Amino acid sequence: MKVTVSRKAHFNAAHRLYRKDWNFEKNEDIFGKCNNPNFHGHNYELIASVTGDIDKETGYVIDMKVLKDIIKSEVEDAFDHKNLNLEVPEFTDLNPTAENIAVVIYNKMKSKLDSNLELEITLYETPRNFVSYSGR
Amino acid sequence: MKVTVSRKAHFNAAHRLYRKDWNFEKNEDIFGKCNNPNFHGHNYELIASVTGDIDKETGYVIDMKVLKDIIKSEVEDAFDHKNLNLEVPEFTDLNPTAENIAVVIYNKMKSKLDSNLELEITLYETPRNFVSYSGR
Amino acid sequence: MKVTVSRKAHFNAAHRLYRKDWNFEKNEDIFGKCNNPNFHGHNYELIASVTGDIDKETGYVIDMKVLKDIIKSEVEDAFDHKNLNLEVPEFTDLNPTAENIAVVIYNKMKSKLDSNLELEITLYETPRNFVSYSGR
Amino acid sequence: MKVTVSRKAHFNAAHRLYRKDWNFEKNEDIFGKCNNPNFHGHNYELIASVTGDIDKETGYVIDMKVLKDIIKSEVEDAFDHKNLNLEVPEFTDLNPTAENIAVVIYNKMKSKLDSNLELEITLYETPRNFVSYSGR
Amino acid sequence: MKVTVSRKAHFNAAHRLYRKDWNFEKNEDIFGKCNNPNFHGHNYELIASVTGDIDKETGYVIDMKVLKDIIKSEVEDAFDHKNLNLEVPEFTDLNPTAENIAVVIYNKMKSKLDSNLELEITLYETPRNFVSYSGR
Amino acid sequence: MKVTVSRKAHFNAAHRLYRKDWNFEKNEDIFGKCNNPNFHGHNYELIASVTGDIDKETGYVIDMKVLKDIIKSEVEDAFDHKNLNLEVPEFTDLNPTAENIAVVIYNKMKSKLDSNLELEITLYETPRNFVSYSGR
Questions:
Q1: Beta bridge partners of A8
Q2: Which residue among B10, B41, B126 places its CB closest to the CB of C14?
Q3: Residue C59 structural domain
Q4: Residue F30, domain member (yes or no)
Q5: Taking CB atoms and an 8 Å limit, are B58 and A136 in contact across chains?
Q6: Chains in contact with E, where contact requires at least 3 CB pairs less than 8 Å apart
Q7: Residue E53's pLDDT is what?
Q8: pLDDT, tens digit, 9 for 90 and up, residues F67-124
Q9: Distance between CA atoms of D90 and F127, rounded to whole angstroms?
Q10: Cβ–Cβ < 8 Å for D14, D83
Q11: Which CATH number do you get for residue E120?
Q12: Which of B37, B49, E16, E56 has its CA 20 to 30 A from that of D22?
């Protein structure tokens, strides 16, 4: 019996969408207001969903406290109140679009979970725009 | 790396659920209050979800502005503040249930997207009732 | 000790904003898309808030079941799945703007409550637009 | 054309997470505050999602009133305002974790649906923690 | 310049509505399903709103961390995962209706705030029912 | 008959909380993570609430399109995708706390409204923290 267990969390951060190897005009053309060199920011809402078998002893797929701690160490401590471009190493050479942030979070969290557990990351950049990634 | 990018939108409209080839009693029996000949209405909340590979140059699956424009031209301009039965051609002979509206939106939007992108439509008819369709 | 007790409810309805004593052009100019002669519609979300003293015996300001029943008889049964212009007598000669609907709901519900209870009506016409009225 | 139709519902209940065959210390170690022998409780928010073909006559996958009635008889009447451990037979020997509650709801509802309809249960234990199960 | 600063928090708990000095039938008549002797429970959502002048030096009415700590010590540590009737002293002889819980929270938190700050407590017992109290 | 009409809007921005006339240590002590010199950011959710008499001709307190346009020119065009400290003149010498942002928005919008209309600004800095200001 495969059950998916999900937990919501959030962090807020500044970012800028641009490529260092493009000039300002091309970045402005592709990324528009998101290319503001002084940065803008978001409240990112995260849903981490873990799928696996129910443990017959505990009735848990994963102890929610364990999942909460992995989110805290891998996401909140790493990203919250940060400038993603300047202070988070994964984005030194990677454009911090919602898509790329979701993939980075997936890779960081997946490595901390039992290998028989599947993971899906859903990330809201604004209340109206969100992305999801499950390693496929 | 397949990522799903979703955007929320909304429109409001009047509609009536009934079949022209049934008499009033049969429509009343099947569709109840939704068969009101004077119409009733809803705030429809839409989530359009597009799945595809991340473009390595931009970090986008699809530019959110492109997705927003397709939603505007195919859904908002066509349905918002309209009477679905009387003013939207797709429903001249098709009962505007939430299921059928979702399929119509899917077909209209899918034809505007690159063929290598998948689409899923989620449509809230009320805060408690919603449907989803992904072309399968 | 004055406490306010609130209950959420909802109904959906069709309506048209216009004045019978104006011509179509003037109605179109003032009410825009809301003047569609074929009607449009909304999911109206209602919050009814009743303020009064806590009853020392029960610990209630008002029994929520009583409030729920008043909302049902005065609002849901009267407005749900209706065409406000054609089927709700209060709007025969009153434009069913959110403001006017809130006042009508206030007057209907206030008359069913103990006179020492205050009432405030909050009405969402869409998730982004709402009005409130408390009889002042 | 497979469409998924979803309806939200809710119930509130008391519960305690523990195993009768473990001593208090082991239960405390594994289940923490959730092992409170005096119980605690939740507002459980349920989303029941039914997938099937659109009926060409009605335009429905399932009449929402039918789905609402199944939720009422199988979930709300059985669980609402109850102590899950003491008053719901399915949990006499089954730990009422969110995972196990979702499986129990799935089994109860699935048996009432046409066999060609698929079912997925999503259950929020708190606004931040939720699980889903679809019989796989 | 008076500004109101609000913070949301939550706790979950079991409770039973009844009076010890009434017999079971009278309690059942007045409190219905809420009189279940085995208890039921809720996710209580709290909004604590503090009104005062903006401090010209910091630009704060109150440091959100201070407000968060008061909510934690006075509400979360005292009520979360508890049986309100059996484990929270304030309800030994006080019926734990939403109204009375809001007043208890108000009194506990008010005593920890500077006397020149006003407080309003809003407490959701379910997503559809909530109460508010501001000491008047 | 005084009715309050509210409209939601949003913008996202980067900011830093600090005073130029304090050294880094004092700013760090008072503003903690919010003093990050590389900035962080938020999705700010705005509710602008306008109170006045219902116009007997139109049934409106204020035309929602007028309110929407004032929000766009005074708030969205001025703040969205901006760095509040570096790019919004009002915050050159004013710490952009939620409290101060609400007061600035109030002052900008109030000057564009008829003088007989009252205004209240509610501003969510995160889904859990918000402030409100009504000129008193």
A1: A47
A2: B41
A3: 2-14+43-133
A4: no
A5: no
A6: C, D, F
A7: 98
A8: 999 999 999 999 999 999 999 999 999 999 999 999 999 999 999 999 999 999 999 9
A9: 37
A10: yes
A11: 3.30.479.10
A12: E16
Grouping H, G, I as helix, E, B as strand and the rest as coil, residue C86 is helix
Q: What counts of helices (H) and strands (E) characterise chain F?
A: 5, 5
pLDDT in tens, chain C (136 residues): 899 999 999 999 999 999 999 999 999 999 999 999 999 999 999 999 999 999 999 999 999 999 999 999 999 999 999 999 999 999 999 999 999 999 999 999 999 999 999 999 999 999 999 999 999 8
Mean pLDDT of the D42-63 span: 98
CA C90 from centre of chain: 11
Name which of D128, D100, D125 is nearest D47 in CA terms.
D125
> Measured between CB atoms, does A94 come within 8 Å of chain F?
no
Average pLDDT over residues E26-30: 97
| Partners of B83 in beta bridges | B14
Find the residue in D nearest to B131 (Cα).
D5
Instruction: Report the amino acid identity of residue E82.
Output: K
Q: Is B60 on the interface with A (CB under 8 A)?
A: yes
Structural domain count, chain E: 1
Residue A22 lies in a domain: no
How many CB atoms lie under 10 A from the CB of residue C25? 9
pLDDT > 90? residue E117: yes
Residues of E in contact with F102 (CB under 8 A): 3
Instruction: Give domain status of residue A30, yes or no.
Output: no
Q: Is residue D30 part of a domain?
A: no
| Residue positions counted in chain E | 136
CA distance to C100, F102, F132, per residue, from F125 (Å):
32, 10, 11
Q: Do F19 and E57 touch (CB under 8 A)?
A: yes
Structure tokens at D104: 């129990």
pLDDT at position C136:
87
Our CA angle for A35, B50, D49, nearest 5°, is 130
Asked if residues D49 and D9 have their Cβ atoms less than 8 Å apart, the reply is no
- pLDDT over 90 (residue F52): yes
Average pLDDT over residues B83-110: 98
